[in-house]
Amino acid sequence: MDETFGILSLLPIAVVVIFALITKRVIEPLILGTIVGAVLLYGFSFFPNWVGDLLATMSDPDVVWTMVIPALFGVLIAMFGNSNSGTAFRELAIKYVKSRENSLFATYIFGIIIFMDEYMNALLIGGTMRNLTDKFKVPREVLAYVTNSVGTPVSVLVPFSSWAVFLMGLYGASELLGGNGFTSYVSSIPFMIYPMVTLIILLLFIFNKVPKTRYVKEAMRRAEGGNVFPDGSNVAANDFNEELKKDEANTKKPRLINFILPIITLVAGTVIFDMDLIIGVIIAIATCFILYRFNGTMTYSELFETSIKGIQDMVELIILIVAIFLLVRVNENLGTIEFVIHSVKPIITPILLPGITLLVVAFLGFTTGNYWGTMGIVLPIILPLAQISDVNLSLVLGAMVSGGVFGSHVCFFGDAVTLTSASTQVSNMAQIRVSLPYALAGLLISFVIFLGLGFIV
């Protein structure tokens, strides 16, 4: 839209943040924020236009893709649970994992191995490792923090991931970067400071080398008392108790092959078919069907009933995803990102450009939940500024990606946080209460480093 809403474009975000903090919920504040945005955009005719935007959002191919992914992973995770293959993996891990710290370190390593996609990372690792970390009384919100803090940083640092594929395409379309997306991306990896800092902080957190916040200490004490779920998570706790009863009643023989082979086919299928995660997950599910019938683990009826149950478990998450993307659409129509960028342009200098780029993209990622879209809009603005100011282009690209990664960590209604919370069975707000202080510390450290690099690079 041509109309400029200025500072009013931030109103839907403010409404979402304020009401989420008050209610400790996410879906309702998101819907309210989209309605506020619709009122700004359409006035008295906001309701039919809001419904139109909702339908347009639900039919968008990218949104459909994002809705399908958790549904398919729900099937895969349910397969692992009902086949008792998770028990086999846990029994193997317990032979080597003897402490709370090591259980989180195993999660950290597993996250590095599953580097190709943060969705895969969030859903697979959270769903798999929670049984192991529960044994060592790790609070679920701490598991969520560790899971989410490995996924995206590793994905951007390895040039063979969904983030890398997207950014290479973005860079390849830029004349200022010579149309060589791969070279531009690889040259920027040494300047992706925030992902590196995050992985270091996370390791120090796991092995108790950085101070624990009051909330983390309270969570640890609560878990020591036998409740790994955050206070107020009665539904999740009841579900957990039901899961325990089902696990105890599950007499299926734990076979490690029932876990390992589907994971191998998931990774291989994703890589072979041009990083298409949906194809990889479908191949993994098909592997479960064939393997579990071949070795007698599950009957046909059990396989299909388990599949349906897995999809049902993800329905609330899918609703949340639709609300997230509807808010993203509203923000785009209001021109939120453009307003913020043009507001900070007057204060940008060559030395400050990398640091300001980091902060602007981080802020927009946190407030809009649209990390890739933000980078797509910011890139054609910062590249000419960098060229005119004679600032290293790889440095600026690293700062931009760093800001995007920060946003994926702390946007409480973002897809990365949402998927991780779903797989670890905690609320988004519970995860953010653990992760935000450490993410902000990482952002501050990264900003200082980028200021220094602005002088010397």
UniProtKB/TrEMBL annotation:
PANTHER family: NA+/H+ ANTIPORTER-RELATED (PTHR43478), NA+_H+ ANTIPORTER NHAC-LIKE C-TERMINAL DOMAIN-CONTAINING PROTEIN (PTHR43478:SF1). Its main location: membrane. It comes from Siminovitchia sediminis. Keywords: Cell membrane, Membrane, Transmembrane, Transmembrane helix. The keyword Membrane applies. It comes from the Bacteria. This is Na+/H+ antiporter NhaC family protein. Pfam families: Na_H_antiporter. It is a multi-pass membrane protein.
